[in-house]
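Recall from the previous lesson that a structure prediction takes nothing but the amino acid sequence as input. Here we apply that procedure to Isochorismatase from Pokkaliibacter plantistimulans. The sequence below is the only information supplied.
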Amino acid sequence: MLIELHKVSLLVVDVQERLVGAMSDAEGLLARSRWMLEVAQALALPTVFSEQYPQGLGSTVPALTALVPGAEVVDKRHFSCVAADCLPETLLAREQVLVMGIEAHVCVLQTVLGLLSLDKQVFVIEDLVDSRRPQDRQLALQRMRDAGAFVVSREMVLFECLADSRHPQFRALSKSHLLGEQP
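The prediction returns the following tokens.
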């Protein structure tokens, strides 16, 4: 099954100021997240940021939300965005959901399982999920895969969304993101 631009939305789970620094690869995760959000903005992908208890964990890293002006930010207390019932119709109206964020084995996992229960086609961007402990991340990715989620890379997302080298954004995105400049 391919990711289709007109069917997909992007959910960024809990990449928050006080949480991201504890991840196993915080700097790399932020760099790769910036890359993906630039692509999302260029392709006009509907994007939603979730925040787990922002009063305690802070808001989403501002450098990320700045890349997608107008993206909706939702807050939650449940670990799962689905259980929290906080996802907007702009995200739920589409058949496919790309998921990235932290922590892979808690909020990302529970959200992905919830989206699958809603019969969504869920694509977890492997290089854009992290946990404090690498083994938790690996277990979560395997569990999500076993449950029916597709585990993909950022480049898979880009090329499947573009679908064709004649796409109006192909030249710009391939020049700036694929010729050695991606993190």
